[in-house]
Amino acid sequence: MRHAVGSFEIKMIPAEARPDAGPDAPGRMLLTKRYVGDLQGSGEGEMLAMRIEQSGAYVAMERIRGKLDGRDGAFTVVHRGIMDAGAHELSITIVPGSGAGGLTGISGIYHLTIENGVHRYAIEYRLPGD
Length: 130
Prior knowledge:
Strands 1, 2, 3, 4, 5, 6, 7, 8 and 9 form a nine-stranded antiparallel sheet that branches. The chain is globular, with a radius of gyration of 16 Å. The chain is 0% helix and 72% strand. By secondary structure, the protein is mostly beta strands.
């Protein structure tokens, strides 16, 4: 298993709601990220989120492009986050078969933490031949 760590800056831009969306429809955000550290590159994606009092959930798809382990390429991650009365559960997985270029065949898990306002990633991954 290989490991990559670093941080990223994120911009979230509210996206226009569907024309038929009701008042309790999920909020939609467009994501743009800049990665530094072991992963050098950018990410673009879209998030849907809902918050209900002390609980909520979000899902997102993100395409990451850049250099990882000296290889130029791209891959997609899928996010799933749940908050239940303050308890958090987060799962971010590299989508099987989504790797391209030098990252074709990548698989693994992406960990996200936020410390003092800084977004940090730790990716555990495999490449073909590992």
